[in-house]
Amino acid sequence: MRRFGLAVVLVLACSGLVLSPVASAPASLEVTDSGVVAEFPTSLQFTVSAESPHPVTDARLLYTIDKMNHAPVVSEAWAVFEPATSVSTSWTWDMRRASLPPGAEITYWWRVTDKSGETVETTPAVLNFDDDRYGWQRIESDDVTLHWYYGGDEFAHLLLDICNEAIEMLAEDVGTRLDRRIQVYVYRSPEDLRGAMIYPQEWTGGVAFVDYSIVAIGIGPGDLGWGVRALRHELTHLVVHTTTFSPYGVLPRWLDEGLATHMEAEQPSHTFTAILVHAVEQDELISLRTLNGPFSSDTTKAYLSYAQSLSVVRYLLDAYGTDPMYRLLMLLEEGETIDSALQQSYGKDLDDIEAEWRTVLRKQVLND
User: Are 40 and 132 within 8 A, CB to CB?
Assistant: First the structure.
């Protein structure tokens, strides 16, 4: 009886082994998993797993970024792995080489190929490279989405109103507006903002990511006055760069910074006025042809560059109105040189405009 009982147990055990499901290779190439891990602001790690009856030989990430481009751009990145019938691999986007602003939108998918030549693509997925260090809130208007994480609703609505007013003022003074929604990220301080950037300048308090239509700015509880001016400044860069965006056009730095500084406040700061007066009296004004390109890294010359740019832009708007300014930007977008664009919009080239402006500025300084 004992031997019979043992035999029954052995039979049942063997039956159990026979009936258990056995893992088998897939009949064709399959992507079994994919995902992404974000470490803001330093990296994005994209992962993928695949199985096939034949060794998987290639896995590449394809992605697009929601930004202004002259033509559709699909980027590719290759994952490194040893070919096998079952693979799990990844590719890491190191932001130290090409960083993204907070809130940038990426659409990505994987293309996987095995040794037989079979290829499978995953369904495109969308992610936003969000600064997850803070609990963001958001409010919207027709043109702007504002993100903030401190301060009440009244504070947020005040800043949103400032954005909307700046956009309307630009439409009046420049004659154009964005056709893309603007994303504004308001940080509690410049220090918080710099923590969202790779290798920021120590003085950075606000930045316009013009290709992405994103503004990020640090406005502390006691910095509202400065914050309003800086917000107007950065929004102007977005509008002006979008207006002149083309594969051919070059936007002179004095025009870009002059318009942005013009939008900050109704009157120039006492600092800019004093710098201009000193430069006129000492015959130290910088030529506009020099200011077509990057401004000097020297602090004194940089301040003078901004002051001159503001003065020239305000002279053009006061003396000629807004229509020629709009025409100037449109011509630059079409690829005209600054001399040709000024000639067609104002009837004068850059040297003539500069001579005219210097004469008016000198008279103002002497009369004062």
Answer: yes
Q: How confident is the model over 66-83, as pLDDT tens digits?
A: 999 888 899 999 999 999
For the 131-245 domain, the top CATH level (class) is alpha beta
Q: Which residues pair with 33 in a beta bridge?
A: 49
| pLDDT higher than 70, residue 14 | no
User: What would the mean pLDDT of 150-165 be, rounded to a whole number?
Assistant: 93
Which residues, 6 or more positions from 269, have their beta carbon under 8 angstroms from its beta carbon?
none
Average pLDDT over residues 246-261: 92
**Residue type at position 223:** D
Domains 30-129 and 131-245 share a fold: no
List the structure tokens of 308.
């001159």
Tens of pLDDT, residue by residue over 20-37, are 444 566 899 999 999 999
What is the C-alpha separation between 276 and 142, in angstroms, rounded?
39
Q: Taking all residues of the chain, what is their mean pLDDT, rounded to a whole number?
A: 90
Q: CB within 8 A of 360, min separation 6: which ones?
A: 315, 319
| 118: its two tokens | 């079979």
Token duo for residue 263: 């939008």
**Close Cβ partners of 205 (under 8 Å, ≥ 6 residues apart):** 190, 193, 217, 218, 226, 230
Q: Give the CA angle between residues 129, 131, 132 to the nearest 5°.
A: 110
Run of H or E residues at 40 = none
Cis peptide before 41 (omega within 30 of 0): yes
Contact 24/85 with Cβ under 8 angstroms?
no
- The verdict on whether omega for the bond into residue 72 sits within 30 degrees of 0, i.e. cis, is no
What CATH number labels 30-129? 2.60.40.10
Task: Using the predicted structure, report yes or no on whether residue 344 has a pLDDT greater than 90.
Answer: yes
For the beta carbon of residue 235, count every other beta carbon within 10 angstroms.
Answer: 30
Q: pLDDT, tens digit, for every residue of 185-210?
A: 999 999 999 999 998 888 889 999 99
Cβ atoms of 320 and 356 closer than 8 Å = no
Note the Cα 94 to chain centre separation in Å. Answer: 17
Query: How do the domains of the chain map onto residue ranges?
Result: 30-129, 131-245, 250-368
Q: How many CB atoms lie within 10 A of CB 172?
A: 8
Model confidence, pTM:
0.85
